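Two records follow; treat each independently.
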Amino acid sequence: MLIIDDEADHASVDTGEQLFGEDGQPDPEHQPTAINLLIRKILHTFSRSAYVGYTATPFANIFIHERGETPEAGLDLFPSAFIINMAAPSSYIGPAKVFGLVNGENRNGLPLVRIVNDYCDEGAQRGWMPIGHKNGHLPVHDGENGIPPSLVEAINAFILACAARKLRNQETQHSSMLVHVTRFTSVQKEVHHQVESYVLHVRQRLLRNIGEDVILEQLKALWLQDFLPTSSEIAEFHSDFFRSGDSQSWEEIKTVLCDVIAGVQVKMINGTAKDVLDYKDSPAGLKVIAIGGDKLARGLTLEGLCVSYFLRASRMYDTLMQMGRWFGYRPGYLDLCRLYTTEELIDWFGHIADASEELREEFDLMVASGGTPRDYGLKVKSHPVLMVTSRLKMRTARNLYLSFSGQVVETVSLFRDRKNLQKNLESFDALAKSLGPAIPIPEQKRNGRVDKWKDGACWQNVPAERIIGFLESYETHPEALKVNSRMLAEFIHKMSNTGELTGWMVAVTGGSSDKVRDIGGINVKLMKRSANPGLVERYAIGRLLQPEDEAMDLDEAAWNAALKLTLEMKHDDPGRLKNGEEPKTPTVPNGPAIRRIRGFGAPGILPHPERGLLMISLLDPDMAGHKELSADLPPVVAIAISFPGSKSGNKVEYKVNNVGWEQEYGAAE
């Protein structure tokens, strides 16, 4: 018996709570949820059976208890045998391409995302679509046809995209727009009415030549000021997806607008609506604006999706990823696609893109090591961000067990108020004073190259107690989702009791600011890191570390071993080829390889699981972008920790109750 389960993280996961005794044995009386029970019964019935699950968001599957079992249903569906990362073709537009991955201080995503900030008032409690609105909410806005200007622009963008596709001989291909702003069908009904009214308004003006000048001016301005520059940028930097010769002039677009607007339909797609997306029954090409919620959130493919207007907030990362229906293939019209969403969601999705890439690296490392999910101890199980899924699929979420072994954590969300900045600086000063005089960070010679850390200072062989004390007094920002100083301190304490993470290198890396601070007798320049201007409540940066920073404690032999492992990982990646060509060969080791070599060693290289690396950066506060900041504010203390790989399995416990979980991540959906 072979069972193939698509969207395997959704209904197949047992959302009941199976208890385990003190001996680690599962409760035999546990009754799994219906679909999970039926799948397991089928598998348990056959003497030889296999189960293969597919999903883009495997977080819930990884949190299935590996010892879950009942006499009636057999073993639970924990992916014990293998997890394989299926690399996407280069033509696939996924989150890493849309939002980019962190590269130094900046992201390198596609120029297709537009910020929406007019859907509610500053307090987010009133307006067209306030955060946390209730069922029955009536969306009201003083904009055109009662909708925000950003939604007007998004609809106009869809009309222009349809027109351009018609001129590109894609008229018979489907074109869709997604409007996903609420999960309540009563509110969706009002949004449907408003969007339909605006589309009817545009249709009447253009087809009847009555007051069409205003509409045409809006469309022309959007085409000239947004679409043409975006197409040129994609043609220049992403020529794999679009060529400059395929773009159209405004005069060409104008000639087909009437034909296009006449065919645009507005449909409400949810569990109660009668509308359906009848793509198969539309051989001439369906042009549809789909308004919905949960039904659009998973599984339903929107053919030819060009424009998305997305305000739906969820703090469950797998839910957000599944809601992101804009990922897929966009042959010949990628430059016409747009995503209208909030600054916060852009930040979240960018974070997910980074986290997903880290998870893929973990899968690849597991395969390279010859391990299985049962014995490898996937780091995603303990990743402070990737564990965010429905609390019903994480019944043990009230007692979360986290491991940071083989991980790097860094603070990219920081305080910028005087009180917290001063407190963290005092914590750092106390650490530096306790460690005494510092030495310059030693330069490292590697295969003819020399890595230097200018103006840096460090201490070596620092006992774990000093690191723990610093982390217990240092305060991380509540939005620093990857880094919680108390949890890190507890984890290091547990590891040091077993002989790991007992001797640390503490390094303070210098920057390019004209401000200087004495660190253990060495003058170190403050570091400059630009702030994200859209996040006013905190000092948010792109990345703290440079690629070579994690290797500052590796000698030449260990560095070469890490580079060799990096090359092997790249070579084994089935998605490495781009347009049939090999990518550039890495010249420096990547983070996962560095941490693995430090923890597990290599032929001729001794492992050093006792050695952790704490990197501290003093950031110039003038870069934080707060109007109240002045030259006399203390430096912003930011931290990064590189943990060696470990097989110890040590974890720290992080407890939250249901109320706390819902306050942090929202109710299960």
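The next record belongs to a different protein.
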Amino acid sequence: MIRFEGVSKIYLTDFVLKNINWEIKNGEKVGLVGSNGAGKSTQFKILIGDEDQTSGTIIKEGNPKIAHLKQELDCNLNRSVREELESSFEDIQIVDNKLLEIENKMKSLDIKKYSDEFETLVNQLAKYQAKFEALGGYKMRADVDKILPKLGFSIEDADRLVGNFSGGWQMKVALGKIILQKPDLLLLDEPTNHLDLDTIFWLEEYLSSLKIAIIIISHDRYFLDKLCKKIIFIDRGISETYNGNYSFFLEQKSIIEQSKNKAYELQEKEIAIQKKYIDRFRASATRSTQAKSREKQLKKISKIEAPATKSKSPAFHFPECPRSGKSVLTIKNLSHSYEDKILFLDVNLKISSGDKIAILGPNGSGKSSLLKIIMKRISPEIGEVKFGKHNIFTSYYEQNQAEALPPEEKVIDLIYNKCPEWQQKKVRTFLGSFGFQKETVFKFIKQLSGGEKARLALALIIMNPSNFLLLDEPTNHLDIESKENLELAIKNYKGTLLIISHDRYFISKVANRIVEIKDSKLLSYNGNYEYFLEKK
């Protein structure tokens, strides 16, 4: 359907894409993966025509219709669900508005007085009705009614405003608008960001059922494994294609890297031996001919390229902190509501030292509110929340903390202001462990990508030693390498953890206990994520 051939993209003096070669066939589901800044979204922009490639060719067979579901959802919150879905039929909407305009004119016209004008309007009406029918106008409502239950909406929901639904449901509306346009290729950029687990499960099943070609940019490893049978890996502006799911890609990439490293080492060893022989016998009366012959052969060798040194992704650890007592937190008979919704009804929870708890539940169930109540940002209506009596030092990462960073401040100044006693070397080393190296430390925060802001916000939290860590969606916007480093840091963390995340792979790696919010209750599972799924 689409083929990239030697595509490159240069911004000023910076190569984003150097040599991109891949193809997608009808009905294929492909994962586009790579670290933040690798050029994944740039390829989407080139595909939809927002940007042009600097060089190379993009071949499109049969002019396929391409639709793009962006991270920032394109929805009018003041329309009803039905109106928003119908807005995807742009041509039909224009004709429908014209029909309404003609009908209103006919109603207000005195037929006896303006018979000629009325006849003109009748002819116009017939013409636009024929056009409306030809465009599928009468089928439009049926198509919308058909897709509503597939998206999980009831007929009653169709008349509710889009703005009255959560972000997950708004994503369903945005996706529905695209599907109604019947695209040949669907581009999805981080579709699981901010979705709860139930909606992610739904999205996986729904996308699996679609027969169209799909390209997915995602850092959700379970999601990629479930949907994709081909992975395109972008690294340093170059693409590599792997025919298999994400787990297969990781295995194959590791095998290929090991093989390349071994071949390179063997060749370097052989070249060193030959050079030693040439240097030794170049001036020898008996062996100089042999030495020259070997030198000629050496020049003809096709050299194996040196393995690329891996770009450092942030590798960090939590600073040492005094150990807490065994009891870290006790929640007793807690009840709390938000507007007209009861979030918690007479709930109890005990957290002990060393617990690493993942809090699960659909969007709007009260996960973030629970952390805010614990941190005393919100006062509970009924009940009590008590920290343990011995050595409790907390650090709290809020969901939108990365967006609250001061945009006009430089990265390095932010750390200096927090710890003015630190020497420059210590600041640079600390920032380097979060992926801020060389000139990037002098960037203004407003110039940072979403992933860079998330890493910087995490860095600020980690500067303070703590033994009770509360993290609300810390993996949003992080690339896979950064997630892996956060996983490792949490594994080595000696304190207690409360974490909210919709990244199932991440949860499975870090949590030793699950607390699910369901029907205003806290249900505790004393085991990891796999144990929780088994019990469910």
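Discussion point: The chain has a mean pLDDT of 88. How would you locate this feature using only the token line?
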